[in-house]
Every structure is written in structure tokens, then in C-alpha cells.
Amino acid sequence: MANAEASSSAEPPPAHFGPFKFCPLCASSLETREICERPRLACSKTDCDFVHWENPKPVAVAVVATKEGVVLTRRKYAPEIGTFCLPGGFIEKGESAQEACIREVLEETGLQVEVVSHLGVYPSSDANELIVVFHVKPVGGHLSAGEEVLEVGCFHKHDLPPDIGFDQHRAILEAWFAIEVLHLQPIFTSGS
Ligand SMILES: [Zn+2]
Predict the structure, then answer these.
(1) Residue 13 carries which DSSP code?
(2) Do the beta carbons of residue 132 and residue 59 sit within 8 Å?
(3) What is the pLDDT of residues 114-158, one digit of tens each?
(4) In the annotation, is 99 catalytic?
(5) Residue 84 lies in a domain
(6) Segments forming the whole domain that contains residue 34
């Protein structure tokens, strides 16, 4: 494993909130009602149509493939503080998933990357997120831990850290290493 530790100790960003209590349109209280076949928080005022739909938040995540292994970051903030995960983060308004992926990798790992391919979409029902995964390759920069992570390092399949923070990230890594093995060891070889 090659790694680099962060030195900054910035305050955690406010990424997680409790249930909403008031309508963001008219400030009346919210109530739970059956709407479109599900219980949902909606405005209690009769002439306000606000419904809190709670659609999953999209997250862009990267498999940064290098000769030294796949890049993982050690988490500085909740949830799963201190565990390792793939670099990534929430897609900003106006950003494509690819742009968000490239930006998050640079912010967290110091690496400039290009998207090689889209690997898949993973649900995260407990966090109400939808994880969009890309295979990216480094094209510049140098590996260094950004302000939002504790540490960054490269890991091969045989030396992955035991404390991968999220089941989805572990599943993504397993899927990636299965593809990587297929690339290295084709089923059909010339002469067979
Ligand atoms: Zn309202």
C-alpha cells in the first residue's frame, strides 16, 4: 500500500439532518399523509401543495485504477469514521455524474482523472442514496490526502484493508476485481 496522510483538522460539513418539521414554501408544519401509495411528509396547510418526496440522493463514486492498486480514502467524517471507502461524493446542482466523480477524486486524493467507463449503479437504501460508479484513470496530479479525508492509499485485491466502511463499496470492489481478473486472464486464449 502506498499512502499519504492529511494534516488538516477542518470541522465536519453538515451533511446529515433529522426529519424535516416545517414546509419550506410556507413554514406551516408538515404532517404524514398517504400520497401516491406511500406515507409521505406533506404540508398541513390546505392551499399549499408541498410534498417531501424524499427521492434518493445521487452520489458519484470512483474506482481509481493505478499500477499500485485501487485508490481508497480513510473517512474523516460520519458515518463510518476511520474506515476506508472509494473516493466520491454528492453530485452538485448543474453537474453531471462524471464531472462530480472527477471533482471528488481530485478533492480527496489529489489525482486528476479521466472517466474510462461507467461501471454500474448501486442502491443504498439505508442512506437513501443512489451510487453511480465510474472506472477512472489518473492523468495528472499526485496522491495526497485532501482536507475531507484522513488518509489515502492504493490497495491490491490481496491487501485490501479489513475495515471497508460501506457494504456497497465492498460489493463494488469485489465486482471490480472480478472484471480485472477477467481482463488479466481471458477465458479463451489463442491456440486453445
Ligand atoms: Zn406549505
Answers:
(1) P
(2) yes
(3) 999 999 999 887 788 999 999 999 999 999 999 989 999 999 999
(4) no
(5) yes
(6) 20-54
Q: Ligand 1 centre from 179 Cα, in Å?
A: 49
Do 60 and 88 contact (CB within 8 A), yes or no?
A: yes
Look at residue 10 and tell me if it is in a domain: no
Expressed in angstroms and rounded, the spacing between residue 24 Cα and the centre of ligand 1 is: 7
**CATH number for 162:** 3.90.79.10
How far, in Å, are 38, 136, 160 from residue 60 at the CA level? 28, 12, 21
Is this structure's pTM higher than 0.70? yes
In a shared domain, residues 50 and 81: no
Helical (H) or strand (E) element with 181: helix 167-184
Going from the Cα of 29 to the center of ligand 1, the distance in angstroms, rounded, reads: 8
Out of 68, 95, 151, 180, which one is annotated catalytic? 151
**Does residue 68 sit in the same domain as residue 38?**
no
Q: Are 49 and 63 within one domain?
A: no
The alpha carbon of 43 and the centre of ligand 1 are apart by a number of angstroms equal to 5
